Amino acid sequence: MEPNQIKKSGSDWKTLKIFFPYLWGKAERKHRLFFVSAVATLILGKGATLSVPIFLKKAVDALSVEPTPLTMVLGFLVAYGVASIFSRGLADLKDALFAPVEHNAIRKVAMSVFRHLHNLSLRFHLDRKTGGLSRSIERGTQSIERLLRFLIFIIIPTLLEIVLVALVLWWLYGPAYMGITLLSLGSYLYYTYRVTQWRLKLIRQMNEVNTQAGGKSVDSLLNFETVKYFGNEEHEALRYETFEQCYEKAAIKSKNSLAILNVGQGIIIALSAIFMMGLVAWEVSTGHLTVGDFILVNAYLIQLYLPLGNFGFAFRETKLALVNMEEMFTLLEEVEEIKDIPESPQLQVRGGSVVFQNVHFAYSPDRPILKGVSFEVPAGKTVAIVGPSGAGKSTISRLLFRFYDAVSGQILIDDQPIQQVQQQSLRAAIGIVPQDTVLFNDTIGYNISYGRPTASQQEIVQAAKLARIHDFVQSLPQGYGTLVGERGLKLSGGEKQRVAIARTILKAPSIFLFDEATSALDTATEKQIQKSLREVSQGHTTLVIAHRLSTVVDADQIIVLEKGEIVERGTHTELLAHKGLYATMWERQQNLQSE
């Protein structure tokens, strides 16, 4: 199985353009000062580094002339040592000054991506694999530190040092030495750039396969029970191995290309060093230069070639970091499908009436779900929506929460179109108990408090009592501090459902939405919970989506949905007398219960 086609990289400049505002424009004043101080320290350090070979040359030349006062030689050696220490100290100071800048930028980028992902539509998250998404973010944020370290502290300083050394050699020995230096190092940089560009295709392929493998592994582990139910451990292992084999092939190609890069770099450095030192040696032999000059040129070459060994690695790491950051920043370019209108007001809930006016909706053009649905839930009343599976019942709850926007028609709360108010205020007004309850891998107390994170322990306990789960929690050794496990797997379906009910009770919304809220409960518990839900929602607008008709017989109105259209509406008694779809469904469920 071949990995998905690799997306071509955008401009590195585009990635840097997105990133640098986090480093400067969005940084606080103190972080800007740290940044400027680090750059100034870097420049001073390079100046100190350039002076080291000059003091060494003077010491060597002084020793070559007789008689030479020992104090003069010692003076040059002391200056040599001080310049070396000063250079090293400034390098460490530069790292310390830049650390707050880099970690502040990493935090701001991570928060921007995290917030943006939560602002994207449900459609985006249903289409993406969480494992692959988390790996993209993790690689991207880790790459920021690599980019800054290598680009700002190795690549840019190395290029600066090349220019400065070339200028010093030109000033001391003439343009030929500067030309040789720039030509040899230019060849090195060009070769490194060209080969690295080729290698990036392999690196992107590795990333793509790595992302797919991550998504498959997370998906498989999240569905651990399903894998066990069907005895498909080997099937999952083979699927995972397919992607790992693709990664293995890509990794081998990448390692081979690295060997080609390193060999070529080594040849260029060796040839340029032989040519340069041969020229200096010839000039020393003719008396035009001194042994000190030979030492100075050799020291400068060592100063340049040592970081160049790191330069190739730094360039590769920088390019890899840019690829990973590009992948992460691509997420920031994802358009928010559901957006607030600029300066939109907050929803003002007075009574909490909900109105659907001729609502049409489709997940895709060829898959219509709702076809002109119109109904009203009067303030303080309870309306139930029932119908066979696939009729569009749960879609109504997603539209009410504005996870999607209707294709046409309007949804209003207290005469306010929900598309014209702030999403946060809309969702704050509605409390839902969904059919499929997913809990955070945290404590029972935390999952209940999620309905209102500022709630006191007493309020959490009161909500748990209303949801009929307090006694169960108290029976646990850790009480409300009991961990529920990944997605709440340590709790039964009924226990998870009651936790969900408790956190919705704690939220204290103006409008309640129960989407198969008691589907996972036994009959006795269901009756208790139904009583609690009626108590909690008393006087509140309540929309109930149900499959089990016995749970909605007391609703003020029941709407029967079939194939995205309302086919019946009325009270339980009226619908039974009508002898339509509702009566048929009721009779079928009663017969099943009797059996």
Can you describe what's shown?
The protein is an alpha/beta fold and 595 residues long. It is 65% helix and 10% strand. It folds into two domains: 12-332, ABC transporter type 1, transmembrane domain (ABC transporter transmembrane region fold, Up-down Bundle); 354-594, P-loop containing nucleotide triphosphate hydrolases (Rossmann fold). It contains 18 helices and ten strands. A hairpin with a 2-residue loop joins β1 (354-364) and β2 (367-377). The longest helix is centred in the middle third of the chain and has 53 residues, at 233-285. The radius of gyration is 35 Å and the shape is elongated. The chain starts with 11 loop residues before the first helix and ends with a helix.
Short structural description:
The protein has 595 residues and is α/β, with parallel strands linked by helices. The chain contains 18 helices and 10 strands.
Topology of this structure?
Layout: H1 12-23, H2 29-64, H3 70-119, H4 122-127, H5 130-173, H6 175-222, H7 224-229, H8 233-285, H9 291-332, E1 354-364, E2 367-377, E3 382-386, H10 393-400, E4 408-413, E5 416-417, H11 423-429, E6 430-433, H12 444-449, H13 457-466, H14 470-475, H15 493-507, E7 511-515, H16 523-536, E8 541-545, E9 557-562, E10 565-570, H17 572-578, H18 581-594
